[in-house]
Design a protein that fits this description.
CATH class: Alpha Beta
Pfam families: YjgF_endoribonc
InterPro entries: Endoribo_LPSP/chorism_mut-like (IPR013813), RutC-like_sf (IPR035959)
Organism: Sneathiella marina
Number of domains: 1
Distance between the termini: 16 Å
Protein name: RidA family protein
Helix content: 25-40%
CATH superfamily: RutC-like
Domain Endoribonuclease L-PSP/chorismate mutase-like: 7-144
Length: 155
C-alpha cells in the first residue's frame, strides 16, 4: 500500500528494512488497543549486526548517531509490520527509550539518540515528535553500541 508516508520516504530517500525477527524469547512488538509497543531494536543491517563496541572507545559520537538511526529504521520496520504495511496509520510516535553502551564519563547520550529522534521527525513530521529518555550503560546485548525501544499510537 502506498500512502503519504511512503511518498515521504521516497522523497527523502529512506528505505525501510524488513522487520527483524526477535533474537530471544520475546515478540518484536505488541499491539494493545491503539498503541504499539516496539521491543528494543539494535543495529541490524540486512540481517547483519553492525556497530558492536563502546561509544567513547570504539566509536565516536557521530558514528553512534548513525547507529541510532539504524535502530530507528528497525523500529519503523516493526511499526510498519504492526500496521499491516500502512504507515499512514501512525497517529503519533509517543516515546523513544535510548540506551548507549559507553565508557564511564561519556555524556553525549542525548546527542546520540537524536539520530533516532531526528529520523522520526523526518519521516512523520509533527507526528514524529515524542517524549524520550537517553541513558548510558556499561553493556548492551551482543555488545551493540545502541539499543532503542518505542511506543506509537496508531489508528
Amino acid at each position: 500500500m502506498s500512502g503519504k508516508i511512503d511518498a515521504r520516504l521516497a522523497e527523502i530517500g529512506v528505505e525501510i528494512p524488513v522487520a527483524a525477527m526477535p533474537a530471544a524469547n520475546y515478540v518484536p512488538y505488541v499491539v494493545s488497543g491503539n498503541m504499539v509497543f516496539v521491543s528494543g531494536q539494535v543495529p541490524f543491517v540486512n540481517g547483519e549486526l553492525q556497530y558492536q563496541g563502546k561509544v567513547g572507545a570504539d566509536f565516536d559520537t557521530d558514528t553512534a548517531i548513525k547507529c541510532a538511526r539504524v535502530c530507528a529504521l528497525n523500529i519503523v520496520a516493526q511499526v510498519k509490520a504492526a500496521c499491516d504495511g500502512d504507515l499512514d496509520r501512525v497517529v503519533k510516535c509517543v516515546k523513544l527509550g535510548g540506551f548507549v553502551n559507553c565508557i564511564d564519563g561519556y555524556g553525549e547520550q542525548p546527542k546520540v539518540i537524536n539520530g533516532a529522534s531526528d529520523l522520526m521527525v523526518e519521516i512523520f513530521g509533527d507526528k514524529g515528535r515524542h517524549a524520550r529518555f537517553a541513558v548510558g550503560t556499561n553493556a548492551l546485548p551482543m555488545n551493540v553500541a545502541v539499543e532503542i525501544d518505542a511506543v506509537f499510537e496508531i489508528a
